[in-house]
Amino acid sequence: MCGISGIWLSENSTINREKLLSDINSSLDHRGPDDSGIWFDKSLNLGLAHRRLSIVDLSKAGHQPMVSDSGRYIISLNGEIYNHLEIKKELTKNKLTNLNWKGKSDTETLIKAIDCWGLIKTLEKITGMFALALWDRKTKRLSLV
């Protein structure tokens, strides 16, 4: 089971934000021994971190937090999207997204779907057992699902 974490601190905070996020992420190493990643936006004092247990795609193409092709969304996902192959097929068949798939992870399928349809419509289409943190750079909204 992966581990996801994040911080969003006030601009007045004197804490070393990136070190704090790194320490939090390190404390979850037992949740995901296969890979880890951190995304941090200094201008917002916002960061997401991920510890990965590779199940669906064992390659580095499933590295998280993952940034959407448009650059709008950043996601950290724990769990599994059971119907991600059907979603991927729909996106590809209808040419609704960039056909340049980097890997086979359900996270990549999910972020491409969100980039194409938005979060709500994507959530209505997917089935699975998961938790996610999604940052939307355009609306400056953090969604925890």
Keywords:
145 residues; alpha+beta; four-stranded antiparallel β-sheet; 4 helices
Give a quick rundown of the structure:
This protein is α+β, with helices and mostly antiparallel strands and 145 residues long. The protein is built from four helices and seven strands; from the N terminus they run E-H-E-E-E-E-H-H-H-E-E.
Could you walk me through the main structural features you see in this protein, from its secondary elements to its overall organization?
The protein is an alpha+beta fold and 145 residues long. The protein contains four helices and seven strands. The strands form two sheets. It has a four-stranded antiparallel sheet with strand order 4-5-6-7, covered by helices on one side. Strands 1-3-2 form a three-stranded antiparallel sheet, with helices on one face. Helix 2 crosses helix 3 (106-117) and helix 3 packs across helix 4. The longest helix has 12 residues, at 106-117. It is globular. The chain starts with a strand and ends with a strand.
Radius of gyration from the CA trace?
Answer: 15 Å
Average predicted local confidence, pLDDT: 85
Please provide the ordered H/E string of secondary-structure elements: EHEEEEHHHEE
Strand content: 25-35%
Number of strands: 7
Shape: globular
Largest sheet: 4 strands, antiparallel
The side-by-side strand order for the widest beta sheet comes to 4-5-6-7
Helix content: 25-40%
Number of helices: 4
Termini separation (Å)?
16 Å
The class by helix and strand makeup works out as alpha+beta
What are the segments in which pLDDT stays under 50 over at least 5 consecutive residues? none
